[in-house]
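URGENT: need a sanity check before tomorrow's submission.

F., can you look over the NAD(P)H-binding protein record below? I want to be sure the sequence and structure line up before it goes out.
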Amino acid sequence: MTTTGTTLVIGATGTTGSRTAARLTAAGHRVKAAGRHAATVPGAEPVRFDWYAPATHTDALDGADRVYLIPPLGDSDPAAVMLPFLRRARAAGVRRAVLLSSSAVAEGGPAVGAVHQALPGLFDEWAVLRPSWFMQNFTGNHAHAVGIRESGTILTATGNGRIGFVDADDIAAVAVRALTDGSAPNTDLVLTGPQALSYDEVAAIMTEATNKPVVHRRITHARLRDRLTAHMPMEFAGLLADMDRAIAEGAEDRTTDTVQRLTGRPPHDLRAVLKRELALGG
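Structure tokens as predicted:
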């Protein structure tokens, strides 16, 4: 594959950013790997970037003609810092923007939904990735993964609700296509895995994968909100708890063919991803 310009990957040390940057460099594309401490990605140019430090934005944007956007974590109003940056990016020569949002947040919805709504008016070439919950939440450093390792417990307020959990590698594969294809998607893309699973079903799969008992412990929406408030701003904790309630009501019980359509292969299933991640020490 020939190079298509220079892509600024914001959040290049994160779950999808690191994978997207690695796929881009492996395919021969020029990448600026951005993070608060200048992300190190083989083959990419490291650059420091902080959403809340506009002085870091100039060097990050220099020479970039497309950008992969990871919103600031834990911010219930990311548009306040993202929209000024995006206007600056357009003026600096960025012509394509791909935004990571969520299947739970529609255009014009809360948090990053406002950025989604503004994106088509800022760039002629754009896409909004709206993945379901990550399969990597059960490995690594996510609260679910920590709970599984420490007590064999997954704690949610989702009841019997099902989710089309998606592999972060599949998200990155779609991101690369959205960033580098000759024509931008110019739409939002809901990304899921091949099947919708309840957390009870996930716990059973985790038990099988780890050879250790894992259970799903159900709690109320209010209790989840209160637990989350101990670790993040109250408004954002409430937003996350509301997402669990929506899952319980069936909002995420779906699958899509987006990964298959854009990558030419089916999305990975949870058993295969757990086998891969656990073998890597996740």
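My own read: The first helix runs from residue 15 to 26. Residues 65 and 94 are 4 Å apart (CA to CA). If you see anything odd, call me.
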